[in-house]
């Protein structure tokens, strides 16, 4: 099914306000933090709280404006994700009880525990689904059609539709090949202790599975579903990609290049969801990419 077929509702293109508000929320959720920290300041809980509350206030105001009501749930989801990742997750990690466990845990166990705290975002955005009428298929939580045609991507040399059963494995390979040199230069792995890769692989696999499923649900399934019928698929994909990319400035990959890499990956994963009407390829490509990341971290200089 093509991107056009995915969205039977023709979005209103004459009103610029929903677009302006949605983009302001996406950019405003993370860019101020980056600018503030890069200018040498420390981010406090108040910075994150105020940032999230401003987006939430915009969502509540949107409920009373007919032309903006359709982006209200999307705004709430962005606000909750911002608060969950920037405050709740670090706060849980810093709890004395958690530190008592992690201080004596293996590297893999610490990593897995840390990623479970990101589920706070998944839990919170579930509240935006109450009363929405969205189904499991609307959220791409289904098999869909993994063999559906991928629409042309001219700047990648794809000038005609190709099946995702061909494109999906290609992206798995390409992402792994591109990510590996980047991680080699930034993580500084010590391959003299490569036995750690084998010993920690079960943890890497478990964390990659959890992380891929969690992030695909939070950053694509829910957000794309809330944008359906509001914007055209191309803009829906771009909005979620920018949000995901900016969120990786201090992640892995990180920095400006990390933003571009994560943003492009998010753009591909969102396309796969819309074009196949399911989350299979997004999850698989994301999971394999995470396995590559956690494998390098297992032998990283900071392990």
Structure characterization notes:
The chain is an all-alpha fold and 303 residues long. The chain contains 13 helices and two strands, in the order H-H-H-H-H-H-H-H-E-E-H-H-H-H-H. The protein has helices at residues 3-6, 17-28, 31-38, 45-63, 72-93, 96-102, 107-116, 119-126, 164-187, 195-227, 233-246, 255-276, 280-298, and strands spanning 149-150, 162-163. Helix 5 runs antiparallel to helix 10 and helix 8 (119-126) packs parallel to helix 10. The longest helix is centred in the C-terminal third of the chain and has 33 residues, at 195-227. The N and C termini lie far apart (44 Å).
Kindly list the characteristics that best describe this protein.
303 residues; mainly alpha; two-stranded antiparallel ribbon; 2 strands; disordered N terminus
Describe the secondary-structure layout.
Elements: H1 3-6, H2 17-28, H3 31-38, H4 45-63, H5 72-93, H6 96-102, H7 107-116, H8 119-126, E1 149-150, E2 162-163, H9 164-187, H10 195-227, H11 233-246, H12 255-276, H13 280-298
Antiparallel strand pairs: 1-2
Helix pairs in contact: 2-11, 4-5, 5-8, 5-10, 7-10, 8-10, 9-13, 10-11, 10-12, 10-13, 11-12, 12-13
């Amino acid at each position: 099914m093509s991107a056009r077929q995915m969205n039977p509702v023709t979005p209103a293109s004459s009103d610029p306000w929903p677009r302006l508000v949605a983009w302001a929320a996406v950019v405003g959720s993370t860019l101020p933090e980056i600018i503030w920290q890069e200018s040498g300041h420390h981010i406090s809980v108040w910075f994150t709280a105020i940032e999230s509350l401003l987006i939430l206030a915009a969502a509540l105001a949107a409920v009373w404006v007919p032309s903006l009501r359709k982006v209200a749930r999307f705004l709430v989801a962005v606000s909750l994700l911002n608060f969950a990742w920037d405050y709740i997750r670090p706060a849980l990690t810093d709890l004395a009880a958690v530190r008592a466990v992690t201080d004596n845990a293996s590297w893999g166990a610490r990593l897995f525990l840390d990623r479970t705290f990101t589920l706070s975002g998944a839990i919170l955005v579930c509240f935006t689904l109450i009363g929405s009428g969205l189904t499991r298929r609307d959220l791409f939580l289904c098999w869909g059609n993994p063999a559906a045609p991928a629409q042309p991507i001219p700047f990648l040399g794809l000038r005609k539709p190709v099946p995702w059963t061909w494109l999906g494995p290609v992206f798995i390979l390409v992402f792994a090949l591109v990510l590996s040199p980047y991680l080699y230069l930034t993580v500084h792995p010590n391959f003299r202790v490569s036995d750690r890769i084998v010993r920690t692989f079960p943890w890497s696999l478990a964390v990659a599975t959890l992380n891929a499923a969690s992030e695909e649900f939070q950053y694509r399934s829910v957000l794309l579903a809330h944008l359906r019928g509001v914007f055209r698929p191309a803009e829906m994909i771009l909005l979620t990609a920018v949000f995901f990319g900016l969120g990786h400035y201090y992640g892995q990959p990180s920095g400006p290049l990390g933003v571009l890499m994560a943003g492009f990956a998010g753009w591909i994963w969102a396309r796969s969801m819309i074009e196949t009407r399911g989350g299979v390829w997004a999850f698989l490509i994301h999971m394999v990419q995470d396995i590559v990341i956690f494998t390098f971290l297992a032998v990283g200089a900071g392990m």
